[in-house]
Structures are given as C-alpha cells and as structure tokens.
Amino acid sequence: MKFFIDTANLDEIRAANELGVLDGVTTNPSLVAKIVEDPERFTYEDFKEHIAKICTILDGPVSAEVTTLTADEMVSQGEELASIAGNVVVKCPLTLEGLKAVRTLSSKGIRTNATLVFSPTQAILAAKAGASFVSPFVGRLDDISTEGMALIEQIVSIYGNYRFSTEVLVASVRHPQHVVEAAMMGADVATLPFKVIEQLARHPLTDNGLDRFMQDAAVFK
Ligand code: G3P
Questions:
Q1: Is 2-216 a domain of CATH 3.40.50.720?
Q2: Whose CA is nearest to atom 1 of ligand 1?
Q3: Model's pTM, two decimal places?
Q4: Residues 31-56: pLDDT tens digits?
Q5: Active site (catalytic) residues
Q6: What is the rounded distance in angstroms from the CA atom of residue 70 to the CA atom of residue 107?
Q7: Is the CB of 28 inside a 6 Å radius of any atom of ligand 1?
Q8: Burial class (CB within 10 angstroms; exposed 0-12, middle 13-18, buried 19+) of 172
Q9: Furthest CA-CA distance within the chain
C-alpha cells in the first residue's frame, strides 16, 4: 500500500518524507490556496514554481490539478504542468470534459489522476479513459451520510474483475480508520493529511510502555 500526503505545505511534505514512508503527494486548488501568503500577488507562475519545489523533495508522483473546464484547455494546461517535472501527475475532474482530457493526456504518455469521484460508474469511466489513478473522496461521502468506504470496496472489486491498471487512490481521508479499511480492501494508495500520518503512529500503550521502560532503564545508570 502506498501513502501519499495530501497537502501543498512544503514543511509537511519534507517532514513526512523524512519518516521514510512517503510515496507521493497530492494537491488540489484548495490545498494550494492554503499555502498562499499574499493572494493578491500569487500568480499561475508561482503555482507552477511551487509544484516544482514539491517535485524536488521526492521522486514519487506529485498530483497537480488543472483549473480549466474544457477538454482542450485541460489538455494544454496538463501538458504545461507535466513539463514541470517527470513525476507530475495531472489531476482532472471526473466530468465528461475531464474524461476526454484524461484520454488525450494518457495517450500522450502523461500520467493522470481522475479526481472528484463519488460513484463506481465514474471510477469505471476513469479506468476506461486510461487514468493512472482514480481518486474517490471518502470523507466527503461520509459528510452526507453515505458510507465512503463502501465506494472503495466497490471500485477495488470492479477493477479486480477487469484487471484495470488504474490505481485506486483513497482521497478525502479524515482519520486512521479510513486507512485501516482501505488497506483491508486492498486499495493501492491512501492520500493522507499530515495529521493523519502522525495519528497512524500513535498508541497510548506505546507511550505508557515507553515511559515505564525509561523509568526502569534508570537503574542501569
Ligand atoms: O484528496 C482530496 C482532499 O484534499 C479532499 O479532502 O477533506 O477537503 O474532503 P477534504
């Protein structure tokens, strides 16, 4: 199972990368907006430079999202984003236009991530269009009283039936239990906020046990 970090924050990406368990990064316009200090001055060039900085931190896939709505615009923006670094994956929304863009970009050898996926039918289309990754948003489904992880189970099962090579990337992860369930279902990737990566390591019995070991180790001095 691969772990990506779901952030555009360079400090968080560096810190997660130092743990030695990070395989990639996902960003989206909302995550990029969070790191902008002066929105009046932040340009599209600044956005591309920021993606370039992320790509210098690690070699794994770095998803950068298009901010256009027609297939032609997404393809041209996607080509521009992909030219930033070899590990950029172009994220396109799962709309009819987005599907066309995914097909065109993937036929040009550019890796894509079909995002904003909320149904198994959208996931089937993403795979048929040749997406490298499909991003179902589990937390946002939970938010509307729909079991987000049930969608992951459906997609993993459907992709297995047809041996689709598109990787299932569990997105909008909110807590460690999403990660456990994703792993049990055989999802390929989970993209996690930094806080959830930290939570994965924590256990009160580890802390209590360590306190005791340290106290007992005092007799060795
Ligand atoms: O990976 C998608 C993610 O950034 C959306 O997360 O918490 O805004 O639903 P959230």
A1: no
A2: 171
A3: 0.96
A4: 999 999 999 999 999 999 999 999 99
A5: 91
A6: 18
A7: yes
A8: buried
A9: 71
